[in-house]
Sequence to fold (225 residues):
Amino acid sequence: MDADPADFAGSADSAGPADPAGSAGSAEPDTTPVATDDVEGIVAAIGPRLRALRLGRGLTLDALAAVTGISVSTLSRLESGHRRPTLDLLIPLARAHRVALDHLIAAPATGDPRLHLRPRHRDPGSVLVPLTQYPGRVQVFKQVLAPREPRLVSHVGYEWLYVLAGELRLLVGDRDLTLHPGEAAEFDTAEPHWFGPAGTEAVEILHLFGPHGDQAVLRTGTAGG
Fold:
């Protein structure tokens, strides 16, 4: 199945964003100590989370060891809970899985709730992170796409793709394009299309989807402005 944000259009929380006019700067930091039981529970959950991430990406322990430089035995003990996770182990694992460190730890949420993003795993190795929660408006996503077979689809809407890392192959109608980091493309989704990694490595992109065919309004500065 393609990881297409069209599937998520209109599925954001109906409550919308928090009031931007609120006095965020006046909030006092939360100094409430975390109970020892809570800390142990967070640590105990890291191993199963690491295993789920690895299996979701279709990686073996050997493959992950080659990427991170962490031995297979250490990785196995981490996933089973027999090795206590430390920063020197979690940092390379977060980089290998292309997730934030706090996603591995799943620490209690703090601060502005708009900043706590919830990744959605689709195909093995593919992750979609909604960056906006405005139903009916342009939706913004960050995606990591794993290699998969091209399958053209079409639907109502308009899309913009910006490559962050890796190489993106984009098929639109009879056009076959390869985009590199820093390059972008836009197209009407009524035309049959598909996009994914151009090679055997995952590609990381920013993805904007206008569910009603919304198109970007580009404004450029002038010499006098």
User: Anything to note?
Assistant: The chain has five helices and nine strands. Strands lie at 120-121, 127-130, 139-145, 158-165, 168-172, 175-179, 184-188, 193-197, 203-210. Residues 36-56 form the longest helix (21 residues).
